[in-house]
Amino acid sequence: MIFNDIADREEDLVNAPHRPIPSKKISVRTAVIYGVIVALIALILALLIDIREGLPGISVITALIFGSSLNLYNFKVKQMGFFGNVLIGLNVVALFVYGSLFSYFVYQQGFTWVPTIVGLAAASGNVGREVIKGLPDIEGDKKAGNKTIAVVFGPRVAGIVGAFFLLGLAGGAIGACFKHI
């Protein structure tokens, strides 16, 4: 979230001027330093998990891939609108897949599909949330050149697309339940 706030500082001047960076309560330099420290702590913790559990680098690789993916979103892909929303959804599902892989390697159980199904449902819900979250930010997103669904197609279409993906959240939850019946 720290690097997201850094990347969004121009939009936030319009959409959320009270936030720490646009309000100048925290400088961009301080936020970058803090973000790097938090990222390094995350990598160290991932390494410690891998060492403790005898994992073949899964935690570190996951942290590197999806940390990079989130920064790619923050500084490049967000402006592409819906593709950015999907990238965020993929980052959400990755947490669930990581949990399944962790269980597989640590507890020597088969790969469990229920967390992956729930993860896909969560990803769908998150894509819906990201699309709908663009509704109050239309003015700032236009100014920043972000091509969100709300900016390109208007609030009505964004609401319909967002609702469609939120239905995927419900469908995935129901699908996970049937996996156990």
How would you describe the overall organization of this protein?
The chain is mostly helical and 181 residues long. It has one domain. It is 78% helix and 0% strand. It contains nine helices and no strands. It has helices spanning 2-7, 9-15, 28-53, 58-77, 82-107, 113-133, 138-144, 149-153, 155-178. Helix 2 packs antiparallel against helix 7, helix 3 packs antiparallel against helix 4 (58-77) and helix 4 runs antiparallel to helix 5. The longest helix is centred in the N-terminal third of the chain and has 26 residues, at 28-53. The radius of gyration is 18 Å and the shape is flat. The mean pLDDT is 88.
Give me the Rg, rounded. 18 Å
Strand content: under 5%
| Order of helical and strand elements | HHHHHHHHH
Provide the residue-averaged pLDDT. 88
Number of helices, where a helix is a run of at least 4 consecutive DSSP H or I residues: 9
Total domain units: 1
Overall 3D form: flat
State the low-pLDDT regions, or none: none
Broad structural category: mainly alpha
SS elements, strand count: 0
Largest sheet properties: none
Helix percentage: over 70%
Distance between the termini: 38 Å
